[in-house]
Amino acid sequence: MRKLLVFVDPGTLNQARVPLLSEQAFEVMTATTVDQGIHLARQQPPDLILCCLDLGRGSNLQLLETMATKPDLLAVPLIVLTHEQNRSYWRQCTNLGADDCLATPFTDGELLEAIAARLRKQDALTQRYNTLMRHTAERLNRLSQYDSLTDLPNHHLLRQRLVQAVQRAALGQQGVALLSISLDRLRQINNTLGYPAGDTLLRAAARRLTGILPRSTAVARLTGNQFAIVLPAPRNRKAVQAVAAEIIDSLSRSFSLPEQEVFVTTSIGIALFPENTEDISTLLRQADAALEFAKQQKSNYCQFYKPDMPVVSGDELQLETWLRYGLKRQEFEVYYQPKQTLMTGRIEGAEALIRWHHPEQGFISPARFVPLAEETGLIVPIGEWVLRTVCAQSARWRQQGLPPVQISVNLSSVQLNQAHLCQTLDKILTDIDLPAHYLQLEVTETALMQDVDSALRLLHEFKDRGIQVALDDFGTGYASLGYLRDLPIDTLKIDTCFVRGVAHDPKNQMILRRIIALAHDLDLAVVAEGVEQAEEMELLKTYGCDAIQGYWVGPPMRAADLLQHL
Ligand code: C2E
Ligand code: MG
Ligand code: MG
User: Fold this and answer.
1) Sequential DSSP letters for 189-210
2) Phi and psi dihedrals of 152, rounded to 5?
3) Do 255 and 264 touch, CB atoms closer than 8 A?
4) Which atom of ligand 1 is nearest to the CA of 551?
5) Ligand 1 pocket check for 386: Cβ under 6 Å
6) Ligand 1 in contact with 350 (CB < 6 A)?
7) Cα torsion for 148, 153, 154, 158, to the nearest 10°?
8) Secondary structure class of 369 (helix, strand, coil)
9) 367 CB under 6 A from ligand 1?
């Protein structure tokens, strides 16, 4: 039953009309003063207020003014009944919030029609409002569960889906496979082609993933370049592997971005319920641990979780906190990977690679913490520590009368953009009293391409000081070859991906030959990275490559161990 609050004024709505309203199946409450009415309305919110306090002309306006100050009553529709025939009075009423004005004389029928019309309007409004609220709630719900870029479930929803899949699997004594997928090199694409290009790539990758997988498979986007897939009830490992292979195959086809066609590589880590664990959080971390391992291997690699893999807490925040203490607690160490000159067969240089031994978590890979250190800016103090440690080590070897070994240190783009980098370098070299040519800096083409002009200025400053520069991971940065001519660099380090398995890969053989010839034309020395096999070394030698680095020569090692190689 609709509730009316009626301000009874014998003049406009005499007592005789109240029963008329009651007969129309309204529940009628009456009041004779403003205060009384407002008190009633607060206690039992009415569907409509009939305001007919015409006595002394001021009362209707007084009620409207008072109502306007009560936010909880603002939504209640209100009709003014009045003897006043003056239009400006009606306007005054509507300005103060009245929805309608009905002036005497009016019939019972007109009164009832005015009430019904207003209630209908109010119902429509309420309905619209409810729909709007429902849509808003649905949208908020969607935002909290879906990734807005790809429209895929996010990590919250993935977890729910994983819980459901695991519960169902447990009932049917089946398993669940969780695949953690990383699109390698998204960062390079973001850096060189811009974030819109990276976004386009991510959306296209998401479409491909959902396109090849059955509907029962949940596909989610977790963070930046990481996706996850819940595969319910796989028959066996082979079946999981087949899905992984299909994913890799589908993502390794080229992506057409507005500016350029690009290729990405994929790494996949897999954890199995209940084989590896029955705990959801652990399962998620195990898939990540397997993924970290896969990323360290050749591109397009898929890895099942193994119990000896370090499962670092999935929580990046935790890692960041540990990272902040790492320097103070002296948990970092510099390893040196020997570089062999192919002409002489001698070790004439080494690359400094940071290692982190966490007291509880054990070894944490630089591929995992360096990007985080870059994001948080912690790479600046950490990088400075590496530079100082390397220069001090180099100076010690020099004092011991060893033949000169040039040590190269990796510089991240964050360090390159740091205002005082050159002063820091000067200070370290003077403090330690090391000639600048003992030091080589490795920068990636991706880092240089972020701001070519200032990178050029910086490289010239290095050159003026006699510090050598190597272009690291060459060939992975999607940058054009044209700029190579203008860069004041000394060495090109060819990325592992062109070297690995090159003995059986005619395409990569051709690429290696071309890169080496091009580098020599530009007066640059060439170092090939990731050489693991004798046959790879032999090939590189015939191509005229200057030096090689990789497990075939030696893994990254402690300074004392490198001494044996020298
Ligand atoms: P990078 O500069 O390209 O270093 C080469 C990476 O290849 C190293 O990985 C090295 O251990 C690995 N590697 C060397 N030979 C082989 C091989 O024959 N086969 C295979 N599969 N891998 C090989 P690592 O030490 O894990 O470092 C990863 C990346 O982390 C480095 O790539 C570099 O970008 C970054 N990084 C390492 N140390 C530092 C540092 O002190 N400062 C900065 N800014 N970045 C660093
Ligand atoms: Mg390097
Ligand atoms: Mg490299």
Assistant:
1) HHHHH-HHHHHHHHHHHHHHHH
2) -85, 160
3) yes
4) 18
5) yes
6) no
7) 180
8) helix
9) yes
Distance CA 387, CA 423 (A): 13
Alpha carbon distance 326, 262 (integer Å) = 37
Architecture of the domain whose range is 331-565? Alpha-Beta Barrel (3.20)
Residue 440 near ligand 1, beta carbon < 6 Å: no
Q: How far is the CA of 253 from the centre of ligand 1 (A)?
A: 27
Answer yes or no: is the C-beta of 370 below 6 A from any ligand 1 atom: yes
**Model pLDDT for residues 165-188, shown as the tens digit of each residue:** 999 998 888 999 999 999 988 888
The fold of 2-128 is Rossmann fold (3.40.50)
Does any ligand 1 atom lie closer than 6 A to the CB of residue 532?
Answer: yes
pLDDT of residue 520: 94
* Identity of the highest mean pLDDT range in 73-87, 234-248, 360-374: 234-248
Say how many Å lie between the CA of residue 395 and the centre of ligand 1.
23
Residue bearing the CA closest to ligand 1, atom 4: 353
Ion ligand 2 neighbours, Cβ < 5 Å:
410, 442, 472
Examine the pLDDT at 55 and tell me if it is beyond 60. no
| Sheet containing strand 78-82, strands side by side | 26-31, 2-7, 48-51, 78-82, 100-103
The correct CATH number of 155-304 out of 3.30.70.270, 3.40.50.10470, 2.60.40.730, 3.40.50.720 is: 3.30.70.270
Ligand 1 within 6 A of CB of 501: no
Measured CA to CA, the distance from residue 42 to residue 62 in angstroms comes to: 17
pLDDT band at 14 (very low <50, low <70, confident <90, very high): low
- Global confidence as pTM: 0.56
Give 132's pLDDT tier (boundaries 50, 70, 90).
confident
The residue type of 470 is A
Of the candidates 359, 372, 360, the one whose C-alpha atom is nearest the C-alpha of residue 292 is 372
Domain ranges of the chain: 2-128, 155-304, 331-565
Q: How far apart are alpha carbons 513 and 507 in whole angstroms?
A: 10
pLDDT of residue 10: 59
